[in-house]
Amino acid sequence: MHLQAGHDTCYDQSMKLEQLGPYKLEKKLGRGGMGTVYAAVDVTTGNRVAVKVLAPVLATEEGFRERFEGEIESLQQLNHPNIVQLFGFGEQTSYLYYAMELVEGSSLEEELIKGRRFQWRDVCHIALDLCRALKIAHDHGIIHRDIKPANLLWTPEGQVKLTDFGIARLFGNTGLTSDGGVLGTAEYMAPEQADGRPVTHRCDLYSLGGVMYALLAGRPPFRSKSMLEMLQMQRYSEPKGVCHYAPDTPVEMEEIISQLLEKDPQKRFPNALMVARRLEAMERGLSLRTERELKMATSDTDGFEIKPHGIENSAAGMGDTLDITEVVPPPDQTQDGATVDQSAGTKSPHIASLESATDQETGSDQFMTASEAKQQIESLHRRKNPLIALPTWILAISLVCTAAAVWYFLQPPPADRLHEQIARASHGDDRQLLEIENELTAFLKHYPDDPRSQSVRDIQQQLQILHLERRAKSQARLLNKRYPTSPIGPEYLAAIELADSAPEKAAARLHSLIALYHQPGQPPSISVFLDAANKQLPQIERQVKERAKATLPLLEQRVQKALDAFPQNPETTREICRAIVVLYRDKPWAEDVVFRAQEMLRRLNQSAAP
């Protein structure tokens, strides 16, 4: 499902094309709204290439030539193993064309159409390749805007290459889209893109999440028979968790995809680099955890800690590790990739070079290799900067700024600022709490004597409990996969799932499991769950005590209010007592408070009786 400005019709060439520049055309590989792609041979080198051609009838339509030239401009700037490489471009008998590398393989869309379901590790590797491609594009200020399985070519070696920059644009350059116009593919389009709002690099990250979802689930996050309904779903609907369609997907990967598919762009990852870091850390962590947790499930050691480790990618076929050094953004891009204004109408250097040559040799066919265009641009820069080049000044200033930044960041953050961040996140959800782990550590390290340090320690304890709960759930699922026929595995998993919302019930279930099945000589399918239950039970019981400690004083206040209201306002007393009984009658630690509430209700009923 495509939304494009102008015509969306595929045109055949009006004449039989045999050769464009040095490229002898062979078979047609495909057609699209932007032209036709041929397999070809470079007669000067013998190399096989792919040639994309914009027919004259499209070159005269509004926006099509500009978009085609924009695609050439984008590819010329992007030299990366995960992006199709540009070899040359030109114009011949009114046909605008460019040559790129020919990828022997299929697109990910073709694999999905065949019914293929990708395993989560394969999706992780594909996403890492795509993150590398997006990182280099965004670093050059280019937003692809149409990330989808059809634009991801899969080589026989298992490498992904991003193609089709036909609707890509520079940050801030809105020249290719009219007001309110939309370019992109609806199934993978970010909500703000569907609304016609300004497009940023976070739109590509949303589409990345949609692609990962589709590869795992075999379908995009949303499906609809009408384009309007699809756009509405992108704006307002929430997709089912990917684990609903692919149960073997790790919870950690589902969380990454969910964050990429956030409706609010600010809630997504800040950039492709951070996505790659999370994916590599997840893959390494799960690989280590699988071995470690199975071993620890039968040992006497407590806890399920995974030590920090590097994120160097050692998976087969992945190539070099992702460069995670900080990258200075382009002059027209802010540090987090936000959009800034650029001067509209400025022609790209390579297009200007081609037009200059055309002015000199009017009426003749033109062709220029990518390397020749680069040399011509560099020559123009040298003539404009005969002495000290601007990049030299920028480098010197950057070094000074870097030194100042290093000194600044070595200083501990102010206590007030740290505490403000901690306090704000502590009132949010679990994800916000996880995001302030470094701030908690920094506050307690640099300001241990601050009067607010105790409250910070309490929040840190909540975070530790959250980590333990997540590890316990992950271990429970892992053991259930390892022993699918265990008679007590589902009961153990159900108890652990209750630990967050109803720790009292979870503790009671674990006690019952241990009491019922504890005896020497049990098979591993039972003993590993009993060992895990014995290790988790103390932590859950501590959680129950903490909850009782925090809740009982509040309940005592409510009981006292019910007593005070009894003579004058019995209905208030009745409402408070009923609420206490309904909410806390199954909590052993609230037994005394519940009893007193029940007594007051009995007295109310007696006084109301005739």
Q: Could you explain the architecture of this structure?
A:
The protein has helices spanning 56-59, 64-77, 108-113, 120-139, 191-194, 201-217, 227-236, 251-260, 272-296, 349-360, 370-384, 390-410, 415-426, 430-435, 437-446, 453-482, 489-497, 503-517, 524-565, 570-584, 591-608, and strands at residues 2-3, 19-20, 23-32, 35-42, 48-54, 86-92, 95-101, 106-107, 142-143, 152-154, 160-162, 169-170, 184-185, 366-369. It has 610 residues and is an alpha+beta fold. The chain folds into four domains: 1-102 and 347-402, Phosphorylase Kinase, domain 1; 106-296, Orthogonal Bundle (Transferase(Phosphotransferase), domain 1); 451-545, no CATH class; 547-608, no CATH class. The protein has a seven-stranded antiparallel β-sheet. A three-stranded antiparallel β-sheet has the order 8-10-11. The relative contact order is 0.06.
Write the layout of secondary structure elements.
Elements: E1 2-3, E2 19-20, E3 23-32, E4 35-42, E5 48-54, H1 56-59, H2 64-77, E6 86-92, E7 95-101, E8 106-107, H3 108-113, H4 120-139, E9 142-143, E10 152-154, E11 160-162, E12 169-170, E13 184-185, H5 191-194, H6 201-217, H7 227-236, H8 251-260, H9 272-296, H10 349-360, E14 366-369, H11 370-384, H12 390-410, H13 415-426, H14 430-435, H15 437-446, H16 453-482, H17 489-497, H18 503-517, H19 524-565, H20 570-584, H21 591-608
Helix pairs in contact: 4-6, 4-9, 6-8, 10-11, 13-15, 15-16, 16-17, 16-19, 17-18, 18-19, 19-20, 19-21, 20-21
